[in-house]
Amino acid sequence: MKICLAQTKSVKGDILANIAKHQHFIQQAIVEKAEAIFFHELSLTGYEPELAESLATTPDDNRFAIFQQMSDNHGITIGLGMPIRTAKGIEITMLIFQTNQPLQSYAKQQLHADELPYFVEGHEQLILWPETLKVAPAICYESLQASHVQTAHALGARVYLASVAKSQKGVDKAYIHYPIIARQYQMPVLMVNCVGYCDNFVSMGSSGFWNAKGELVAALDHVREGLLTVDLQREQMALK
After folding, report:
1. What is the per-residue pLDDT for 236?
2. In sequence order, what E strands does the chain have?
3. Domain count for the chain
4. What does the alpha-carbon distance between residue 154 and residue 109 come to, in Å, rounded to a whole number?
5. pTM
6. What pLDDT shows up at residue 29?
7. Any residues with CB less than 8 A from the CB of 13 and at least 6 apart, and which?
8. 221 Cβ neighbours under 8 A, 6+ residues apart
9. pLDDT tens figures, 64-98
10. Contact 162, 189 (CB under 8 A)
């Protein structure tokens, strides 16, 4: 399977502008003949916890219809980030649009202490393509916690996909942790990060792919938007 990681700079709080940017990158992924594209944590709003209350919406928001349409028309899975309002509170959510299928979602299960005033935790691990590729999504902080990948592996995950918003300190931790878990579980790890200012830090990109040996095969830089295309079967990468 060919998967694209979209390293973008979100426009703070501007959902419509970010939808347009997402469309641009999805079109690039379609040209690459990718079967899936994933964006960073809270990609449709930017990682802005203090704005979550005003920006949060529900999965049936008609602004998302374009993504289902693109998925249906081009046979591509689209995973993007959005604060989603539930009966329990606002969750940091990855919405997943798949061709001619109902919308799926994955909510971050382990929150950083700084996020607790704004969000509530999800409670169920999602496995994408459970009959074939078995991809386990993880969202930022939890992807650095041993218990999360342990649970994903126990559920049969073969690929670990981290959608994050990380500063240089967070990127440094990820570049230590992800090779370790890739080797330990013999499971490729993909990380997609954003670039630019968000919340109270600068996100430092460096979206990358580690193979099952824990080797960093390819990565984007820490300042520019771009697309990293990963062919998981051939472990061939293209950077744009």
Report:
1. 47
2. 2-7, 36-39, 77-86, 89-97, 104-107, 135-139, 159-163, 189-192, 195-198, 201-204, 208-210, 216-219, 226-231, 236-239
3. 1
4. 16
5. 0.96
6. 98
7. 45, 46, 48, 51, 54, 55
8. 205, 206
9. 999 999 999 999 999 999 999 999 999 999 999 99
10. yes
Q: Tokens for 15, please give them.
A: 């959902």
Using the structure block, give the residue that is written with the tokens 């994903």. 152
Residues 6+ away with beta carbon under 8 Å from 139:
41, 81, 92, 94, 106, 108, 162, 163, 164
Q: Which residues contact 179 (CB under 8 A, 6 or more apart)?
A: 189, 210, 214, 215, 216
CATH number for the domain spanning 48: value is 3.60.110.10
Query: Whose CA is closest to 41, among 224, 135, 170?
Result: 170
Structure tokens given for 170: 């967070």
Tokens of 81: 């980030």
Q: Name the residue range of residue 89's domain.
A: 2-239
Q: Is the pLDDT of residue 240 over 60?
A: no
pLDDT in tens, 26-69: 999 999 999 999 999 999 999 999 999 999 999 999 999 999 99
